[in-house]
Amino acid sequence: RREPLALVNLKKKHEETGEEELASRLDHCKAKATRHIFLIRHSQYHLDGRADKDRTLTPLGREQAELTGHRLASLGLKFDQIIHSSMTRATETTEIISKHLPGVKKISTDLLREGAPIEPDPPVSHWKPEAVQYYEDGARIEAAFRNFIHRADAKQEEDSYEIFVCHANVIRYIVCRALQFPPEGWLRLSLNNGSITHLVIRPNGRVALRTLGDTGFMPPDKITRT
User: Fold this and answer.
1) CB of 68 within 8 A of CB of 101?
2) With a cut of 50, which residues of the chain have pLDDT below it?
3) Which of 57, 116, 139, 176 could anchor a disulfide with 61, C-beta 3.0 to 4.6 Å?
4) Are 5 and 11 a contacting pair, CB within 8 Å?
């Protein structure tokens, strides 16, 4: 509901100058800026951790995060914020990346935690979570999409550059939803650890995918997909 018409109360239209007034109000509600969304998958972590707090980054994972942070800094963009999943591996990845982007505020959220967004189609044999997970995680991840992936607010004057550090399932689902592809196909996409996915959201709400899972800035021996 960010289309200008959805933001105007049509019942308040003046009877005589209705069309002019409506055009003016619609113009006031139109977005002017472009949002650049950088979705970062967390780095490699210890898979054998029993609880989330034990699933910390591996030494290689820390190297990957350094490389990702260096790459983001080298783009020369003025990043507005880093929003990250509250899970340990995403938080640690964020801390390392943020060293390369001093002054950029960090915000933690449970919405971006890893989960099962929607039952994949076609199904796969190696990953079959309980059906209840799709209902619990799916609603949360869809809420994350609606909360974070949208056109700029009409009050935003300049283009923005935002970083989201989270997880493969979340990023793949968001990409499918943002591009209006069937979200059930999310599992057909593959993302490396520490990879960069770049979405562009124009003022009219249209979304373009600039890069998907880019790790071309990492040496081949540093690339993993755990």
Assistant:
1) no
2) 16
3) 57
4) no
C-alpha span between 199 and 51 (Å, rounded): 32
Contact 154, 26 (CB under 8 A): no
Q: Is 4 exposed, middle or buried (0-12, 13-18, 19+ CB in 10 A)?
A: middle
Domain boundaries of the chain, sorted by first residue? 1-30, 32-222
CB 139 within 8 A of CB 110: no
- 11 to 5, 23, 31, 122: CA distances (angstroms): 12, 14, 22, 47
Q: What are phi and psi of 108, to 5 degrees?
A: -95, 140
- pTM assigned to the model: 0.91
**Tokens encoding 16:** 């005589």
pLDDT at 20: 60
pLDDT attached to residue 191: 98
Helix (H) or strand (E) holding 36: strand 35-41
Rounded Cα distance between 36 and 66, Å, is 21
Q: What local confidence, expressed as pLDDT, does residue 14 receive?
A: 52
32-222: CATH class: alpha beta
- The separation between CA 60 and the C-alpha centre of its own chain, rounded to angstroms, equals 24
For residues 161 and 178, the answer to whether their CB atoms sit within 8 Å is no
Nearest to 41 by CA among 197, 175, 161: 197
Q: Tell me the residue length of the chain.
A: 226
| Residue (of 210, 145, 150, 128) closest to 183 by Cα position | 145
**Is residue 41 within 8 Å of residue 191, measured between CB atoms?**
yes
How does DSSP classify residue 37?
A: E
